[in-house]
């Protein structure tokens, strides 16, 4: 297994290897994705109120995604990768101050800043499109998952222990956002000086994109990704944090363990993907998305932390099985000349649909803590059907 990892890692271009390492270095900072929703609840907001705060922030920041696709066709992606880290670092500082002085408006401002940074997230997909070789893209994504999740497996229990057990004080948990902010800004500097530039673009200006030129397979995969994103939003960190507030004695420690358990299957399964032939892609997509649906159902039915941790393992195993092939199928439907435009437009549609999702999910969770997870189960199954309609011709066709 280690031999497979070394072999495929050696076959990756330098840009791909450095990018994967960079993503791994960002993982400890992403602990804020569970810390901030927890702090919203711990400082007095209800899950419905926190959802409304996040929806307001998403609405204010939504215009970024509307233009990002056009920019990505003519810009150096590394600049945007660095910008994400800088802007998120600022957001964490504003969050900290807002929580310390108990001013909800500042929390809203911080959420707006954070979501402005997320408006540039399509740049990650553009960099991956260029850096990961098409001929073994699913192997590149397996390594893309393995290395960062290995870091998560090591760092999250340590961070959770320090913040939830060793100190256990709300003030320290809030003040830790300053540390995360500093680390995020340093990562931005690292991106500028260390990540290889992939060029402004291999084409200077994209040809006009007409609706009739958009591949039908991309439309179906785009819809599958949007629907899957809705399921993710229904189970977003705020909703998971609310569940642990209800069922765990130490919610922050429970959340840290949840993310730790989520990392373990990815670390174990991703090396196996390196040995899997593409012709098994459809089977692994079915198995992976099925496990994710099962995990959502477990969260929808459980009142015990142990079952929630089992759900984390189940969902993560499903993600490790399906993600390399899901991304391979998606990218295979995108013509090179329109990769920035289509990926940016897809992100814009996901953002527009997802603007209301924090409020919707929060309101649903306010009615019943478990209901968002049950709804997500059915949504994942629908997304699976759309994905398979595109994956079958790609992988079964490769046999001929």
Quick take:
The protein is mainly alpha-helical and 400 residues long. The protein has helices at residues 2-11, 14-26, 32-42, 47-61, 63-72, 77-101, 104-118, 122-131, 137-167, 170-194, 216-234, 237-247, 251-273, 281-301, 305-332, 339-354, 357-367, 371-397.
Number of strands: 0
Question: How large a portion of the residues is in β-strands, by DSSP E?
Answer: under 5%
The number of helical runs is 18
How would you characterize the largest beta sheet? Answer: none
- In round numbers, the mean pLDDT is 87
> Which architecture does the CATH hierarchy give at level 2?
Up-down Bundle
Name of the CATH first level: Mainly Alpha
The stretches of 5 or more residues where confidence is low (pLDDT under 50) are 201-212
Instruction: Assign an overall shape.
Output: globular
Class by SSE composition: mainly alpha
What would the CATH topology be?
A: Growth Hormone, Chain: A
**What would you report as the Rg, rounded to the nearest angstrom?**
20 Å
Helix share, percent: over 70%
Sequence of secondary-structure elements: HHHHHHHHHHHHHHHHHH
Detail the topology: elements first, then pairings:
Blueprint (H helix, E strand, L loop, with lengths): L1 H10 L2 H13 L5 H11 L4 H15 L1 H10 L4 H25 L2 H15 L3 H10 L5 H31 L2 H25 L21 H19 L2 H11 L3 H23 L7 H21 L3 H28 L6 H16 L2 H11 L3 H27 L3
Helix pairs in contact: 2-9, 2-10, 3-10, 3-12, 4-7, 4-17, 5-16, 6-7, 6-8, 6-10, 8-16, 9-13, 9-15, 11-16, 11-18, 12-13, 13-15, 14-15, 14-18, 15-18
Keywords:
globular, 400 residues, mainly alpha, single chain, Growth Hormone, Chain: A, 18 helices
């Amino acid at each position: 297994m280690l031999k497979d990892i070394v072999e495929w890692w050696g076959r990756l271009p330098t840009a791909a290897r450095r990018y994967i390492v960079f993503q791994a270095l960002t993982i400890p900072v992403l602990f804020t994705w569970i810390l901030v929703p927890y702090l919203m609840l711990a400082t007095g907001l209800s899950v419905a109120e926190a959802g409304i705060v996040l929806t307001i922030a998403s609405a204010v920041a939504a215009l970024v995604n509307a233009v990002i696709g056009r920019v990505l066709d003519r810009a150096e992606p590394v600049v945007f990768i660095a910008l994400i880290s800088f802007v998120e670092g600022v957001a964490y500082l504003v969050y900290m101050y807002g929580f310390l002085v108990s001013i909800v408006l500042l929390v809203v401002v911080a959420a707006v800043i954070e979501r402005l940074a997320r408006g540039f997230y399509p740049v990650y997909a553009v960099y991956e499109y260029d850096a990961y070789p098409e001929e073994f893209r699913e192997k590149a994504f397996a390594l893309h998952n393995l290395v960062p999740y290995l870091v998560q497996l090591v760092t999250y229990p340590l961070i959770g222990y320090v913040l939830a057990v060793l100190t256990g004080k709300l003030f320290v948990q809030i003040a830790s956002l300053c540390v995360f902010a500093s680390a995020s800004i340093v990562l931005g500097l690292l991106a500028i000086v260390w990540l290889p530039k992939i060029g402004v673009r291999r084409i200077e200006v994209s040809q006009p994109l007409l609706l009739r030129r958009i591949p039908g397979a991309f439309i179906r995969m785009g819809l599958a990704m949007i629907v899957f994103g809705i399921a993710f939003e229904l189970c977003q960190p705020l909703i998971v944090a609310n569940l642990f507030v209800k069922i765990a004695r130490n919610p922050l420690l429970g959340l840290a363990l949840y993310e730790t358990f989520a990392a373990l299957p990815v670390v174990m399964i991703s090396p196996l993907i390196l040995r899997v032939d593409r012709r098994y892609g459809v089977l692994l997509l079915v198995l992976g998305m099925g496990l994710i649906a099962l995990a959502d159902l477990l969260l929808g039915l459980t009142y015990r932390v142990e079952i929630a941790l089992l759900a984390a393992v189940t969902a993560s195993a499903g993600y490790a099985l399906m993600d390399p092939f899901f991304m391979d199928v998606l990218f295979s439907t995108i013509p090179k000349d329109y990769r920035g435009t289509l990926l940016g437009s897809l992100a814009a549609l996901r953002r527009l649909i997802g603007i209301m999702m924090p409020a919707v999910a929060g309101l649903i969770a306010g009615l019943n803590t478990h209901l968002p997870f049950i709804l997500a189960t059915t949504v994942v199954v629908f997304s699976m059907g759309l994905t398979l309609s595109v994956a079958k011709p790609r992988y079964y066709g490769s046999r001929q």
